[in-house]
Specification:
Largest sheet: 6 strands, antiparallel
CATH class: Alpha Beta
Order of helices and strands: EHEEEHEHHHHHE
Radius of gyration: 15 Å
Strand order of the largest sheet: 4-3-2-1-5-6
Strand content: 15-25%
Distance between the termini: 8 Å
CATH topology: endopeptidase fold (from Nostoc punctiforme)
Length: 196
């Protein structure tokens, strides 16, 4: 992939199916197929005006990378160049198109929300809690949403909830597979395309 495909737009979701053990564990815990189903997700949004509104992948993970917004290397919520992430990723990458382009005010709110989340730590405990179907359901009944630290699918779910495209009372209950199954079922995103 040499350049960012022209069809990628703000609000679209990028899914990752890794070829490593941690990805397999995520899939086992979230009713996915190891090395095939999703183990990570991120959302596309525009960078601030001073960066000329470039489309970036906003994601939360434990991998240390240089954030395009802050210029710092770290973990947690960061913004990355999609092309670089796809080229470096060991596994499959899927593009989930939003069913329609975002309106200007939605795209602006999405960017504002994600910029406010930059540098929030990765929520490893939340990711583990969201892993099992029964566990995430019961956790969501007794545990309120906490966005002080974010894991990948929590970032995507809360971003879309913030702009009103996805209704959820608890973004913390979603794992990559359950979130994308739900978003496809309600037709918020279309059929995925393989990017890599």
């Amino acid at each position: 992939m040499r350049n960012l495909p022209t069809y990628v737009k703000a609000g679209d979701i990028i899914g990752f199916s890794g070829f490593y053990w941690r990805s397999a564990l995520v899939n086992l815990g979230s009713v996915g197929i190891p090395f095939w189903s999703l183990s990570h997700v991120g959302v596309m949004a525009h960078a601030p005006d001073y960066m000329h509104g470039k489309l970036l992948l906003f994601e939360s993970n434990e991998d240390s990378r240089k954030c395009e917004i802050t210029g710092k290397v770290g973990t947690g919520v960061q913004a990355h160049d999609l092309q670089e992430v796809v080229e470096q990723y060991r596994g499959r990458v899927w593009y989930y198109p939003l069913y329609r382009p975002l309106y200007w005010h939605e795209s602006t709110r999405l960017t504002d929300f994600l910029l406010s989340a930059i540098d929030r730590p990765y929520d490893q405990a939340g990711a583990v809690r969201s892993g099992g179907i029964a566990l995430s359901f019961f956790e969501s009944l007794f545990r309120e949403q906490d966005l002080s630290a974010l894991f990948c699918s929590e970032t995507v779910a809360s971003a879309h909830a913030n702009i009103g495209t996805f209704r959820t009372t608890n973004a913390s209950r979603w794992n990559p597979n359950s979130l994308m199954r739900k978003l496809r079922r309600i037709e918020l995103v279309g059929t995925p395309r393989k990017m890599k």
